[in-house]
Every structure is written in structure tokens, then in C-alpha cells.
Design goal:
Layout lengths: L5 H26 L2 H8 L3 H7 L3 H23 L1 H10 L7 H13 L1 H27 L9 H20 L7 H12 L4
Helix pairs in contact: 1-2, 1-4, 1-6, 4-5, 4-7, 5-8, 5-9, 6-7, 6-8, 7-8
Subunit structure: Homodimer.
GO molecular function: DNA-binding transcription factor activity; transcription cis-regulatory region binding
Protein name: TetR family transcriptional regulator
């Protein structure tokens, strides 16, 4: 039997993740049946689950990929920039449905909560490091503890995601983000 190259395996995995992201975004976790996953990826269940243990493993891989992508933007430009990008290019954020599903499962599924907390640490660490650098440079308020700033920004992000996902991304959200950014800056 011929050996499959690492490039081929990586391309197949990427194909599966891309299709699964669209499927989860359109149908939610419960509605993303194996049959629908097969249709959107163009692959058999055997091919899909050769790369992922099960549907939950596939969903976690997507969520982890999205958190890694967000952490990269946060590390270089901040969490508010992630939110600005969401407003400017909503078509690039088909993971919004994934984020809503994560929130639902965190509330209802203790096994998922344990698994996700291990994977989401990277985004929290990137946010903390960015805020620490900004505080050291004198750009952020020093009268508010960093963990409170993180909670505040996470709350705004969750609200923005819910707002966009419900189709209510109004024109004033950019101005709201200006206000959020101003509220965490150091006042001279």
C-alpha cells in the first residue's frame, strides 16, 4: 500500500476543518450531522474520522484553531483589534458560530469545559502578555487589575459576537469599540 505524504495528510485535514467550520456555523453542533459533514467536506465518514477521533474531537480542533488565530492577533495588536476585524470583515469570521457553540457547551458540558479550559489558556496568556506590555509602556490604566481588564474585554467580545451572530451589527459598533479602547487607556 502506498504511503501518503505529510503534505497530503495536512491538506486533507485542512479540507475537513474548512468544511466542518461551515457546517458547524450553518447548523450548530447538534445539526452538524455526520451526513452533513460528509456533504460539505466531500469526504466519507471514514476519511473524516481517520483524522479526528469523533465529532467532538473535530469541533475541539476547530475551536482550538480559532483560539490560536485569535491569540496571534491579540499578541500583536490586542483584543480590541480582533473585534475591529470582526466588524470590518465579518465574512472572515465564520467561527462566530463555533464561539457561540463553545459558550453553550461550557455551560452544559463538564467534560467539554475541562477540555476547553486547557486549550483556551493560550488566548488568555496572549491577552495577559499584551496587557502587561501595554501597562509597562504606560498606555493602559494602572488603577485596574489586569485580570479585571481581561474580564471586561472578554465580556465585550462575547457581547459583540452575540450581536453579530444575531444580525444586529449596527454602524455604531465601531464607535462602541472606540469607547472600549478609550476606557482601558491610561488617563494623563
Amino acid at each position: 500500500m502506498p504511503k501518503v505524504s505529510e503534505d497530503h495528510l495536512a491538506a486533507r485535514r485542512s479540507q475537513i476543518l474548512s468544511g466542518a467550520r461551515r457546517c458547524f456555523a450553518e447548523y450548530g453542533y447538534d445539526g452538524a450531522t455526520v451526513r452533513r459533514l460528509e456533504e460539505v467536506t466531500g469526504l466519507s465518514r471514514g476519511a473524516i474520522f481517520h483524522h479526528f477521533k469523533d465529532k467532538d474531537g473535530l469541533f475541539l480542533a476547530l475551536a482550538h484553531e480559532d483560539a490560536t488565530r485569535m491569540a496571534d492577533v491579540v499578541a500583536h495588536e490586542g483584543l480590541v483589534q480582533v473585534m475591529r476585524d470582526m466588524l470590518a470583515q465579518p465574512e472572515q469570521f465564520d467561527w462566530l458560530g463555533t464561539r457561540l457553540e463553545i459558550a453553550r457547551r461550557l455551560r452544559n458540558d463538564p467534560d467539554f469545559r475541562r477540555s476547553w479550559s486547557q486549550r483556551s489558556a493560550e488566548l488568555t496568556e496572549a491577552t495577559m502578555a499584551r496587557l502587561a506590555r501595554q501597562k509597562s509602556a504606560g498606555r493602559l490604566r494602572d488603577d485596574v487589575p489586569t485580570d479585571v481588564l481581561i474580564g471586561y474585554l472578554d465580556l465585550v467580545l462575547d457581547g459583540l459576537v452575540a450581536r453579530i451572530a444575531s444580525g444586529h451589527a449596527g454602524d455604531n459598533l465601531s464607535a462602541v469599540l472606540d469607547l472600549v479602547e478609550e476606557s482601558v487607556r491610561r488617563r494623563d
